[in-house]
């Protein structure tokens, strides 16, 4: 794990996904999307649980102690999710929602999600 598009050479004809090597495309197929609604500036970082969101469906509610400035809350959320799911920080990738409270992360498909 830990591959990036820049670190792998593109192999023409081996990828059905534009510009990605076949190895990166295969790695992305075994990942799942995790939608998270984050509340920054909390007293402590904690997982609240699952709830239904009218816009995107089921989301994981998480509070983080970091402020929402200069990416501190995003980094704290990624670190908290990695620790909670038993993953390394590099396995938890922020896909969407850099400046939003509703974020989409990609994690390995075999990650143990909270109940």
CATH architecture of the largest domain: 2-Layer Sandwich
The overall pLDDT average reads: 82
Radius of gyration: 16 Å
Number of domains: 2
Largest sheet: 5 strands, mixed
Shape designation: globular
Order of helices and strands: HEEEHEE
Question: Proportion of β residues?
Answer: 25-35%
Classification by helices and strands: alpha+beta
Count of beta strands: 5
Strand order of the largest sheet: 2-3-1-5-4
Number of helices: 2
CATH C-level class of the largest domain is Alpha Beta
Helical content stands at 10-25%
- End-to-end Cα distance: 26 Å
CATH topology grouping of the largest domain: Conserved Hypothetical Protein Mth637, Chain: A
Mind telling me the CATH superfamily name of the largest domain?
YggU-like
Q: Uncertain regions: pLDDT < 50 for 5+ in a row? A: 1-17
Could you characterize what this model shows?
- With 115 residues, this protein is α+β, with helices and mostly antiparallel strands.
- The chain folds into 2 domains: 1-30, no CATH class; 31-108, Conserved Hypothetical Protein Mth637, Chain: A.
- Helices cover 19% and strands 30% of the residues.
- The longest helix has 14 residues, at 72-85.
- The two termini are 26 Å apart.
- Residues 1-17 have low confidence and may be disordered.
List keywords for this structure.
115 residues; alpha+beta; Conserved Hypothetical Protein Mth637, Chain: A; five-stranded mixed beta sheet; 2 helices; 30% strand; globular; disordered N terminus
